[in-house]
Fold this protein.
Amino acid sequence: MARDRLPLVAVTLLAITAGLIFLIFLEGGPDLLDAGRGPGVAEEATQPLETGGPRRRSELRPVLESPATEATDPDLPPDDPIEYPAEALFSGDARATFEIRDAHDRPLPAEIELRAWLHRLESGTRIHEGVRVDQERKTLHCVGEVGSGLEPGRYALRYQAGPYGGGWKDFELGRGQLLSECLRVATWSRVIKLRFVDRDGRPIPRLAVAPSYSASDLRVPDRKLPDGPGLLLREPPGYVETDNIFIGGGGSGGSFGARRGSRAWATQDGCWFLRVVAGGEGKLHVSLSAGRDGCGPIDVSGAFLEPDWDDHLVVLDPTETQRSRLARFTLANAEDPGNQSVLDLRTKSAREPDPLDFGTETPVGWSRVVFRGPEIPHLALDVHEPDFGSSVSHFERRYRDRAEQEVEGVWYSDIAVGRDLDLAWSWDDGALLRTTTRKRGRSELPASGQLQEIEDRFGHLPFAVRLGSLGPTLDAWARGLTLDWADEERYRPGPRRALRDDDGFRIETAVPLDENGRPLFRARLELTLSGDARWSRRSAAIAWTAAMSEAARRGLVELEPELSGLALRALDEEGRALPWVEASLMEASSLPVALRVRSILAEGGVDVSLETGFLVDDLDRIALSALRVGSDISGLERHVGEKLWQALGDDAARLHVGHNGAWYDPWRKMRGDDRGYIIDLGERLVPGRRYVLWLWSRSRDVNRPDRMLVFTAREGVTDLGLVRLPRWPGP
């Protein structure tokens, strides 16, 4: 009879066990297990935003596999459904363009440096966005960090046009919206005329020193906006953060007028023209001598608004010695007497100098060295002295025009003469092309004011590199692709980046050829993917193969990198991108003990405060010893603290806290970028194994995450697609 009851007893015990496990899940609160896994209650954060992407901790993380923390699949919630809505996964493509003009609706002078800063206003805080400056057209293009567009939302643009001032422009963009406006500064460009005559009213044909005008930047008041919430999740025990990011900037003044010098300066029938900033603060200076010119120095500071400056008379009485002296001097401005070029705002545009036209402006004691190389886009030249390894000078590239695709294949630099110089050089296009070092035998540089040409032609194979599909979320996130050598011993001036277009990623590059016409590759290729935000993630190194060499000969190499990691995008209920999302990943087998520890910490009022001297090596030794022996983990108690040790109750919970310093796993933390993407291509997930991802967006309480996701890892990148979270409210 008792034997007949055994099946019934077994069934009863299984039912009780299942009920207990279900109660364990409920200890974390209903917000973690309902369909929406809704938001928690959070206090407002006042810490500044710490920029940076997900930090790699996997190599430092001690291994801790305890049978006490294992759970079988039937005990866990089912995997969350995954959504891949194409439009929602892609970031916004809104754009705004602003042309900056002066107060009289005229273009700003070409030599004025236009600067701009763009902020996305998010929940009362700001996120720095990318703005491109067209200095030639004095136009600001608000298109994001890599030019792919902006997220829908409100923006504040600060612009500074040097001494002409600037201002703030607030605007709002919808998804895909294109905005174009003209903005005007409070000052304007005015040309004043100085008329130099003698006492008889005759024009003064030449001046010893050219008049000049200078103005400082007219500053734009700053706005005090907080940078967003501080980081919520703690660091693991014994972990020291070493990442540092510095972002700086500076200002500059403006100066308008002809250059000073020891030569004579020709007027235009006695007139000299200067462009000034009307309405701003500037200073006019004319260096005159009472004994030589019959008039002392002229120094005028002000806004130059008076009508008199349209034709301001300056009476001089130069001596005969001064007249005859200036008549013998060479004219410094024979092509532009009186500085008339300022009458046309466009004449001050930057012009690429002709390296072969040495002219009379060459400094005494200098000669020009000209390199002629192949006409390859993005090609750079590195010249140095082999004995010292230091750069000789900065060699500038000559273009047919300012479009980079129109290359001339000529580099030039001015180098001091009077010494023997042994040159060494190499060529680099910032991607795959890197030549071996070439040397020239020691020889004396040519005399002052002369040219020396060095021609270096080498075999090269031009081709393009294209990347295939990366999956729904990575395809939507990735906007930039960088190629570089995966060889740390080789000096590189910096890898080159390609932006995405309708044909995917594409980098135009070339490789040097050996004497048999075969491509020279001495290292693997390394690809780096980056999104719209400033943070980038390294993907993988790829060994160059013979098949890739053959593809390069045909002009196109298509790469399919083997990536691994995790990818998802967080949006709010209205479909807007969520910045400042934090996440913590753990294996699903650790979920029951993690929930139990979380409940103890939340309801028992006990905090985790491990001692400062607690090191990762100590934890590794204690944890592994406990697993091997299966008994004594008392060495961990002094690090956890007596109160928490007693509250945890069992060894599984104590090991979990000692290992993580929290109920979640701080060794596998992630943080989303400012467009809601959480991309970690360094996280190693085991295919087929189940994981739990905790997410915080609105919540500022570590014990109340906004959502829990359960998923099964896949081969390569595990793409979780779109995740909905509550929005951080801000102040």
